[in-house]
Please model this.
Amino acid sequence: MPGQHRRRERARRRTEAWSAAHTAGRWNHVFSTEDPAELRTYLDALTRSGAARAEDVRVDHPCGRLIHATRYEVSVWTPEP
Model:
């Protein structure tokens, strides 16, 4: 596919830069929901308010399968002092 190598290289460089800048710290769980619309609203508010940069936000999506409802968990990177 045209451009795929370039996209992979760009993603690799971005990951390496993030890892180099964030050596000491941890992910803090800040929000959990089962509603995708509520998740989008929370993420928009979080990034617009300046509380966290988009690069420092992680969304985990554990698979609920048929037994449990699908959950979305938001974590924010917190650097060590």
Summary: Helices lie at 4-21, 36-48.
